[in-house]
Design goal:
With 47 residues, the protein is an all-alpha fold. The protein is built from two helices and no strands.
């Protein structure tokens, strides 16, 4: 195992999650909840 100095530890990038992944997961949740709401509570179109 290799010991890192303080300067080297500040440069290391870990397995962070990107904002695009968070946005995609959020959009999928909103989309699927809308579909589920449509099946559970159908309002229909009223002219």
């Amino acid at each position: 195992m290799e010991d890192l100095e303080k300067d080297e530890m500040q440069v290391v990038k870990g397995g962070g999650i990107s904002l695009w992944v968070i946005a995609g997961i959020s959009a999928a949740i909103v989309f699927l909840s809308g579909i589920l709401d449509g099946f559970v509570n159908p309002n229909g179109y009223k002219d």
